[in-house]
Amino acid sequence: MTTHCDISPADGCPAERLLKALSGKWKAQIFRLAVDAPVRFNALLRQLNGANKQSLATALKELEEEGLLEKEIVQQKPLNIQYTLSEKAKSLIPVFRQLDRLA
Fold first, then answer.
1. Rg value, the chain, Cα
2. pLDDT tens-digit profile of 27-57?
3. Nearest Cα to Cα of residue 81 among 62, 61, 67
4. pTM of the full predicted structure?
5. Which segments constitute the HTH hxlR-type domain (predicted)?
6. How far, rounded to the nearest angstrom, does the alpha carbon of residue 90 sit from its chain's CA centroid?
7. How far apart are CA 96 and CA 75, in angstroms?
8. 81 with 32: CB under 8 angstroms?
9. Cα separation of 18 and 22, whole Å?
C-alpha cells in the first residue's frame, strides 16, 4: 500500500515529516519506552545500550521540539525531569503497533 501526498515539495508530505521526526539515533527506542510509562534521562541511559549523554539529550530535545514528547519537572527531592508522550504521539501508538506486526 502506498500513500500519495498532494502537497508541494516545500510543504513536504506529512508521513515523510513524521518519519524524519522519528529517524535518528535513539528516537524510535525512546518512543517505544515512553509508550508504557514516563521516562527519565538516567533510566534511558541505562536502558539504551551504547547511548551517551550528548546523543540522548539531542534526541530528547528534538522529540520535544517535534511535539512528540512533553518535558515535566517533578517537584520532589531530588528534582527530577521526566518525559511523557504528547497527545500527538499517543495518536501514533496504533501505527507503531501495526509496524511491529509487519516487521
1. 15
2. 999 999 999 999 999 999 999 999 999 999 9
3. 61
4. 0.79
5. 13-103
6. 10
7. 32
8. no
9. 6
C-alpha cell at position 85: 508522550
pLDDT digits (tens, 9 = 90+) for 75-96: 888 888 999 999 999 998 888 8
Residue 19 belongs to some domain of the structure: yes
Contacts of 64 (CB under 8 A, 6+ apart): 70, 71, 83
Q: How many domains does the chain have?
A: 1
Q: Where are the beta strands (DSSP E) in the chain?
A: 39-40, 69-74, 80-85
Residue indicated by cell numbers 514528547: 69
Q: Are 67 and 88 in contact (CB under 8 A)?
A: yes
